[in-house]
Amino acid sequence: MTDDTHVLDRPPPGASADWTIPQDWAHFSQEEHHVWDTLFARQAKLLPGRASDAYLRGLDVLKLSKPGIPDFEELSDRLMKLTGWQVVAVPGLVPDAVFFDHMANRRFVAGNFIRRADQLDYLQEPDVFHDVFGHVPMLADPVFADYLAAYGRGGQRAQGLDALKYLGRLYWYTVEFGLVAEPEGLRLYGAGIVSSFAESRFALDDPSPNRIAFDLERVMRTEYRIDDFQQNYFVIPSFEDLLRVTVETDFAPLYTKLAEMPDVPVAQILPDDMLLTRGSQAYALAKAS
Ligand code: PHE
Ligand code: FE
After folding, report:
1. Confidence of residue 6 (pLDDT cuts 50, 70, 90)
2. Nearest listed ligand to the Cα of residue 243
3. What residues contact residue 284 under an 8 Å CB cut-off, 6+ apart?
4. Reaction(s) catalyzed by this protein (predicted)?
5. Residues with beta carbon inside 6 Å of ligand 1?
6. What is the pLDDT of residues 41-95, one digit of tens each?
7. Centre of ligand 1 from the C-alpha of residue 152, in Å
């Protein structure tokens, strides 16, 4: 989201006014379904014991293990019964207002293409594997489902307050790269992590990144990187807790306050941080040298 440089300002030919397009499931080739199956098999093996309980339950109840790229109609039927969400296809990145409107109305927008077999590990734009395998399982969880719908409404409001920078960081450090503390240990729930072979190990096991207890204001101040593994992960105590603090806090005064404060660079630790792991940053330092 929010990287407007690749975004058109009106729906491309063939798309509806709300930017959706028919998924046209039948257009995917055998090769494309095979890419999904390859990615699925790799992640499904890695995630038990790493992904959050809510994520793994979602994968199961939505029957995402069925071979091939999921048919959005079938997927939306299951999801609708569980939490009232649907999955709709879009050609690629969409403008923020469109993204928030769908989200506030419990429609999750998913890219209608899949990476090539020679791009399994790295991709610039979110494809159907990232969007569906990464995001959709969490939408089967009633609490997370409510969080994302509330986020959509918060996005509409933040646009009017010119505060998308702050709200976007909340998305980044929860929806995309969040960790949750479960009784057995830290677990993954961010879509950017669970859909990545390398980061789903790095985020939990590597001594490099900081792992910091989630604090709303801290998260909203913190810069992030879009080009490599994160240098910080923020850990929520539970999804109930995340929903409660974000819904009960009025963000408008917070945005005003944050505008007066400096942003926090990616690897900086603050005196008030509750550190679960103080990262060595060895990975980022090695890359930089
Ligand atoms: N409470 C937020 C606001 O006042 C809305 C919001 C809820 C944003 C949940 C994100 C997640 O704008
Ligand atoms: Fe995503």
Report:
1. low
2. 1
3. 208, 228, 229, 231, 267
4. (6R)-L-erythro-5,6,7,8-tetrahydrobiopterin + L-phenylalanine + O2 = (4aS,6R)-4a-hydroxy-L-erythro-5,6,7,8-tetrahydrobiopterin + L-tyrosine
5. 150-151, 154, 157, 246-247, 249-251
6. 999 999 999 999 999 999 999 999 999 999 999 999 999 999 999 999 999 889 9
7. 8
**Chain segment 113-149, per-residue pLDDT in tens:** 999 999 998 787 899 999 999 999 999 999 999 999 9
Q: Which residues contact 131 (CB under 8 A, 6 or more apart)?
A: 108, 109, 110, 111, 191
CB atoms within 10 A of CB 198: 12
DSSP 8-state secondary structure symbol assigned to residue 109? E
ipTM (interface pTM): 0.97
Among protein residues, the one whose CA lies closest to atom 10 of ligand 1? 151
Pairing of strands 232-236, 86-90: unpaired
Per the CB < 8 A criterion, the answer to whether 55 and 188 are in contact is yes
d(CA 40, ligand 1 centre) in Å: 33
Q: What is the pTM of this model?
A: 0.96
118 contact partners, CB below 8 Å, separation of at least 6: none
Q: So where are the chain's domains? A: 4-288
CA of 216 to the centre of ligand 1 (A): 11
Average pLDDT for 203-212: 98
pLDDT-derived band at 101 (thresholds 50, 70, 90) equals very high
Tell me the mean pLDDT in the region 159-187: 98
Q: 147: Cβ–Cβ under 8 A, 6 or more apart, which residues? A: 174, 239, 242, 243, 246
Q: For residues 55 and 137, is the Cβ–Cβ distance under 8 A? A: yes
**Beta-carbon count within 10 A of 234 CB:** 26
